[in-house]
Design a protein that fits this description.
Function: This enzyme scavenges exogenous and endogenous cytidine and 2'-deoxycytidine for UMP synthesis.
Shape: globular
Order of helices and strands: HEEHEHEEH
Distance between the termini: 35 Å
InterPro entries: APOBEC/CMP_deaminase_Zn-bd (IPR016192), CMP_dCMP_dom (IPR002125), Cyt/Deoxycyt_deaminase (IPR050202), Cyt_deam_tetra (IPR006262), Cytidine_deaminase-like (IPR016193)
Strand order of the largest sheet: 2-1-3-4-5
CATH class: Alpha Beta
CATH superfamily: Cytidine Deaminase, domain 2
Helix content: 25-40%
Protein name: Cytidine deaminase
Family: Belongs to the cytidine and deoxycytidylate deaminase family.
Bound molecules: 2'-deoxyuridine, zinc ion
Strand content: 15-25%
Catalytic activity: 2'-deoxycytidine + H2O + H(+) = 2'-deoxyuridine + NH4(+); cytidine + H2O + H(+) = uridine + NH4(+)
Radius of gyration: 14 Å
Structural class: alpha+beta
Length: 141
């Protein structure tokens, strides 16, 4: 496949647009740190999410897990890429909890594409972000 990180040029452009647009839905009155996430599902559909904070701070949820919970509960279980957008430079990367959450549902070579506020991006595979990871395959059947 031609294009960027295994995605077509059009898919990459849409991932960027959707992750950046998803920031608008953030509920982050405490941190004021908006995060948007877009998932490209393997059926070609898209799911987005944003961070949703809480007056009891630890109860808040990150954009990545919001998007994944939406997708999984819509029956979308496989993903080609995940895009994460923030308002900072250089781009933020998913927190440890989200890396493990993504690990449950993604191949280790799935690209995690992080967009900054200057129109630049950094791509890492899930395995690069979470090496020597623990996943469903390690549990006895
Ligand atoms: O990759 C990240 C990093 C942080 N946050 C959220 C959590 C919290 O609402 C705010 C500040 O940490 O940003 C995300 O959603 N994703
Ligand atoms: Zn997180």
């Amino acid at each position: 496949m031609s294009g960027v990180h295994g995605l077509s040029e059009a898919q990459f452009a849409t991932l960027s647009e959707k992750a950046i647009a998803a920031k608008e839905a953030a509920y982050c009155p405490y941190s004021k740190f908006r995060v948007g996430c877009a998932l490209l599902c393997d059926d070609g559909t898209w799911v987005t999410g944003a961070n949703v904070e809480n007056a009891s701070y630890p109860v808040g949820i990150c954009a990545e897990r919001t998007a994944l919970v939406k997708a999984i509960t819509e029956g979308k279980m496989k993903f080609k890429a995940i895009g994460v957008a923030t308002d900072i430079v250089p781009p933020a990367s998913p927190c440890g909890m989200c890396r493990q959450f993504i690990r449950e549902f993604a191949e280790l070579d799935m690209p995690v594409i992080m967009f900054d506020n200057d129109g630049n991006h950094v791509t890492m595979t899930l395995e690069q972000l979470l090496p020597v990871s623990f996943g469903p395959g390690q549990l006895p059947t």
